[in-house]
Design brief:
The structure is a single chain. The chain is an alpha/beta fold and 232 residues long. The chain is built from eight helices and ten strands. The chain has a single domain, classed as Alpha-Beta Barrel (TIM Barrel). Helices cover 33% and strands 19% of the residues. Bound molecules: iron/sulfur cluster. Its EC number is 4.3.99.3.
Length: 232
């Protein structure tokens, strides 16, 4: 698999926010969101807002599943978060890793952009999907960021939550339309922001409307605490 080194961390977003975990970041993404906070996993041409082009030879390393499994189980955590990039682009390669983690009693959460139909062998007890479909402000064309077959499958998968990056209440209307179209009933709203000031600004703008709509909110703990620092 193509990934950075596994590390010990806390889940920074969503329903397990603050939970100690092992964190595995896989390389490559099929989208190119302009505000992406991990462009070093896929942006080899400098097309995101950062304007920086990263070198895949520096950022990514081919690792055997067995060595990654050994490193993650060695952390002694009961939760592993697998993120990216888009981790489900490598989902077939991940099956032996998931087997090993579950056998060790470790839960797994995938952070996915919701454009890949999950392999049925991944849909099993102990594995959860945190699906983050991208809205129009991401800059990705609708036909790339909204894949009906995948969203419908995730919406029908028990334990799945949907997390939407939002800036304005107009974004919430877009979320409402997607929730209605695909039968999404577990909605978390996360304010967009690459720094604490922007996260706070967007949270203040959104939180009342989110509560009024019967949804949940999450912050971005890692950005509030560590900013842009990588590897924490
Ligand atoms: S889907 Fe996620 S990793 Fe991919 S470009 Fe968008 S924000 Fe970045």
């Amino acid at each position: 698999m193509r990934s950075s080194a596994p590390l010990e961390a806390v889940q920074g977003e969503g329903r397990s926010l603050g939970r100690r975990c092992g964190f595995l970041r896989l390389g490559g993404c099929n989208l190119s969101c302009r505000w992406c906070d991990t462009p070093y996993t896929w942006d080899w041409q400098g097309i995101s807002d950062s304007g920086i082009s990263y070198d895949p030879k520096v950022e990514l390393h081919r690792r055997s599943v067995s060595s990654v499994a050994e490193e993650l189980t060695g952390l002694g955590v009961d939760l592993v978060v697998i993120s990216g990039g888009e981790p489900l682009s490598q989902q077939a390669r991940l099956l032996p890793l998931i087997d090993t983690l579950l056998e060790a009693g470790t839960e797994v959460e995938f952070e996915t952009n919701g454009t890949r139909v999950p392999d049925s062998r991944l849909v099993r007890p102990g594995v959860r999907f945190n699906v983050s479909p991208k809205l129009s402000h991401s800059g990705d064309p609708a036909e790339r960021r909204i894949v009906p077959q995948a969203l419908s499958r995730f919406a029908a998968t028990p334990g799945t939550t949907f997390k939407f990056v939002c800036r304005t209440t107009a974004d919430l209307d877009e979320v409402s339309a997607l929730a209605s179209d695909f039968g999404i009933d577990s909605v978390w709203i996360m304010p967009e922001g690459q720094n604490p000031d922007d996260i706070d600004k967007h949270m203040q703008e959104l939180v009342s409307s989110v509560i009024d709509r019967g949804w949940n909110v999450t912050t971005r703990l890692h950005t509030l605490v560590w900013g842009h620092k990588r590897g924490v």
